[in-house]
Design goal:
The protein is an all-alpha fold. It is 63% helix and 0% strand.
């Protein structure tokens, strides 16, 4: 199994609130498209941070921090380009989530989004 697909499966195992989203994604996409799935992960994580859904944003951030620290290129690419880059911008609701990123994600976020 490709590492980016394993990342998605491991995230769903760590954060069961993503199970329904994952099932719908697999059905709609006829498999796992990690970058596409992570668009939804961002939306769900921000909604959770704002108090609006069943996923646990803290579990998601801890899991992604741990995964990023493993320094696996396929995983890093998904986390950076499809999660961190798509987090809210300073003028959008949920931007405060970036203040809760772990050190590895915070460093990557600062590198790709120099203006926040």
């Amino acid at each position: 199994m490709e590492r980016d697909v394993q990342l998605v499966r491991d995230l769903v195992a760590a954060a069961p609130g993503f199970e329904d989203l994952f099932d719908a994604h697999v059905f709609n996409e006829d498999g796992v498209l990690s970058h596409v799935f992570f668009w939804d992960v961002v939306q769900e994580t921000v909604a959770s941070f704002l108090g609006g859904n069943k996923t646990d944003w803290q579990v998601t951030l801890r899991f992604l921090e741990e995964q990023l620290r493993l320094d696996v290129p396929e995983v890093t690419t998904v986390v950076v380009t499809s999660f961190l880059f798509n987090l809210p911008w300073p003028d959008q609701p949920g931007y405060g989530l970036v203040d809760h990123l772990g050190p590895a994600m915070s460093a990557r976020f600062g590198a790709i989004r120099t203006s926040g």
